[in-house]
Amino acid sequence: YECLEKWRKKFPSSPTCENEGFIGSQGLCICHSGTQGDRCQIKLRGYYPNLTCGGTVTEPTTLQPNPTTNRRKTERCMWWIQAQECHKAQLTVLEFKMRTPCKQFTNYFELRVNDPILPGTR
To answer: Which of 2, 74, 76, 77 makes the best surface tag, with the fewest CB within 10 Å?
Structure first.
């Protein structure tokens, strides 16, 4: 992702990519899985295919993707945490271990605070 600004400067008239697509080295949108089109504007399916765990949380709880130490390489979990009316959600991460060294792009924890589609902090 360090090259994104470089490509934007090199291709100032490049399209504005939608659905988390981004400008690639040829000045065209690179679309994430589940989207297509010259601006990634066509959604074929949800962005998070094949979720293996997760759900909606409305009460205090402990979240744990898979208690086994041998998680599958393709494991994807997503929780939508919703606070009760007139309350704020609070998230405390006590421990987080990557499956493999952080060099792999697929290993991450991402916090999205307003919308499950809009990018969050990794």
So the answer is: 2
Q: Which of 117, 113, 112, 108 is nearest to 75 (CA)?
A: 108
Residues 35 and 53 in one domain: no
At 89 the three-state DSSP class reads coil
Output the CA angle 77-83-84, nearest 5 degrees: 140
Tell me: do 115 and 66 sit in the same domain: yes
Q: Following CA atoms 105, 107, 112, 115 in sequence, which dihedral angle do they give, to the nearest 10 degrees?
A: 70
How many domains is the chain partitioned into structurally? 2
- 58: containing domain: 49-122
Confidence check: pLDDT of 66 > 70: no
Question: Could you give the CA distance from residue 99 to residue 110 in angstroms, rounded to a whole number?
Answer: 15
Reduced to 3 states (helix: H, G, I; strand: E, B; else coil), residue 16 is coil
